[in-house]
Design goal:
By secondary structure, the chain is α/β, with parallel strands linked by helices. It has helices spanning 15-26, 39-48, 56-61, 73-81, 104-116, 130-135, 146-157, 171-200, 204-212, 219-230, 240-253, 263-279, 286-298, and strands spanning 7-11, 30-34, 51-53, 65-68, 95-98, 120-123, 126-127, 138-143, 160-167. It has two domains: 7-168, Rossmann fold; 175-298, N-(1-d-carboxylethyl)-l-norvaline Dehydrogenase, domain 2 (Orthogonal Bundle). It is built from 13 helices and nine strands.
Length: 299
């Protein structure tokens, strides 16, 4: 392997991060991981050839670059700036690739903190699902200068099918939130339509056939409605809580341009209401179940 980055530290090896790390190992990178709560993905990656670090200092010192795939910007900030975080054990020129979906304002602030310590922070949020993470065919949106993108491309190519260069640091998180507004808005809309079929006496398979034969045919319809028909919710393995988080970030980002008639604030209210009812940790297809329950409570 001739590329600059041979040793990669992976922080956050959950649904998406596990697939990233597994593909890095398969492509010949020396991968170091660190445990959080769930031992299962760590043990699996170690069995594939990864090395487990006892602490963040050990992981950083063993890595040419660090890939983070965390739940939100709060976790990213803690991992970067905490007393035992990455910057506490940095070395000059370290590259940190943040594959989380984050708040652009926080990303800009963290980039300044990293730059002050001669660490290069790149925002590289992901598109697609854990299915594609395991296959190594994710979409990656990159916020970095041209030279940095060229340097890290061999790392990204290990787990990505498509790489989109959004612009400077922070641009990728903005573009990802726009993408998630469309996809999560569509998912919520389809879930409401599916849920209302039963009280209207509409056959779900017929509805599925109709959508697939017209302009509404897309991956979300296929995975959400197809998954409901097969009782397989794992085809959209993304929690409602994470959806609400992302749409919250989106609303904060567009706040200067928002008016009361726009859809984004109402989408956030819808998702947060589901979280407040106790269903935040359910996967997105469970929005159908929530809406069906609400219909029964009304009658």
């Amino acid at each position: 392997m001739t590329q600059e980055f041979k040793k990669i530290g992976c922080v956050g090896v959950g649904l998406m991060g596990h697939g990233i790390a597994a593909n890095l190992i398969a492509k010949g990178f020396e991968v170091t991981v660190i445990a959080h709560r769930n031992r299962i993905p760590i043990d699996d990656l170690v069995a594939r050839g990864a090395r487990e670090a006892a602490n963040m200092k050990e992981l950083v010192r063993a890595s040419d670059a660090v890939v983070m795939c965390l739940a939100d910007s709060t976790q990213v900030e803690s991992v970067l700036l905490g007393d035992n975080g990455i910057l506490a054990f940095r070395r000059d020129g370290l590259v940190v690739i943040d594959c989380s979906t984050g708040d652009p304002d926080t990303t800009a602030r963290l980039w300044r903190a990293c730059t002050d310590e001669n660490v290069c922070l790149v925002d590289a949020p992901l598109g697609r699902t854990p299915i594609e993470a395991q296959l190594g065919t994710l979409n990656v949106i990159v916020g970095a200068d041209d030279a940095t993108l060229l340097r890290i491309k061999p790392v990204l190519n290990a787990f990505a099918e498509n790489i989109f260069h959004a612009g400077p640091v922070g641009s990728a998180h903005k573009l990802k939130l726009l993408n998630n507004f469309v996809t999560l808005g569509m998912t919520t809309l389809v879930a409401e339509a599916v849920a209302i079929c039963e009280p209207l006496g509409i056959d779900l398979e017929l509805f599925d056939d109709l959508l697939r034969s017209g302009a509404a045919d897309n991956l979300i319809v296929r995975r959400l409605l197809g998954g409901i028909l097969k009782n397989d919710y794992g085809q959209l393995a993304f929690t409602i809580r994470n959806a609400a988080k992302d749409i919250g970030y989106f609303n904060s980002m567009i706040n200067p341009y928002v008016n009361a008639d726009m859809l984004a604030p109402h989408l956030l209210q819808t998702l947060r209401s589901v979280v407040n009812e106790g269903d935040g940790d359910e996967l997105l297809p469970s929005l159908v179940t929530v809406n069906r329950r609400r219909h029964k409570n009304i009658r």
